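Entry 12.
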Amino acid sequence: MTELRDFDLNLLVAFKYLMEELNVSRAAQKMFVSPSAMSHVLQRLRQQLDDPVLVKTPQGMAPTQRALDLLEPVDVVLREVEKLIQPPEAFSAETSRRRLVIATTDYIELILLPSLTETLGQLAPNIEIFIREPHRKLPERALAENPVDFMIGFDVNLTPPPHIRCETLFDDRMTSVVRRDHPTLTGDDMTFDQFMAGNHMLISRRESGTGLIDDWLEQRGMSRKIGLILPNFLSAPLIVASTDHILSLPQRLAERFVELAPLKILPTPIDLPLYKLVMSWHPLQEKDPAHAWLREQIMETCRRITQKRPTLALVSDRGNDEKHRIDLG
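Predicted 3D structure (tokens):
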């Protein structure tokens, strides 16, 4: 019994042409080989099949019964192989019913999803967006196996390995919001002493109930008073608007909150770096036409978001009359 690993599958292509032409020379032309090379291929085919395949008759070459029996199944196999090696069909956004799975936070739900959903509704009305809760660790296996298309989050929270694809979408900076009629923060600025004396609200998914500002303070031997810790931003603007809490959060999110509740934005009087929002995906999805199209829609939506936003420069007083510039752009 011939094992598949011992059979030269290229012989099936030669078999197809030999059966079409019933002539070694004409089959050789279709294979782009010499007649002598084609004769050698026919000999190998006979050996592999243990059958003459084609025999000489006064009327020319005639196929054996075994060859006739193989003609249709070989044709089916070769047509399936042709389908396999063809490039994928062009992606059609208008007709695609793909589900776009994004592992991300409510920051993205508020900042990116409204514009992205509007764009996809116009260009790809049948695509479904499914938002999943992110894990503390980048879901590499989920990205590889494709239940998750993208992971979107800030670079300080994601630590993707080098082989994972990453694209920076935009930057954001930490700022603060308080209610407009806050009893002590009455101006448009906030000193470091006022910040440290305030009662803070924190959005954190950490087990410790801390955030990036707390990391910064701990490194300097300080801590702030936290009165409320929430896992997401959903109710945050309404709570801040009815309390004296200070909520520190990304600037782009703060701008949305002041549209939803009677709040005002104050610069956070701490030298924190810009945070990069990044989109990660597995290299296995790199050449998928649908995936590539969706990546471009996300990046284009983020470009529009950044173009709408002005650059602000404020000066903050950090106690002891130390001045430093905070770029909110």
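Annotation: The two ends are 73 Å apart (CA to CA). The domain at 99-172+275-308 is CATH 3.40.190.10 (D-Maltodextrin-Binding Protein; domain 2).
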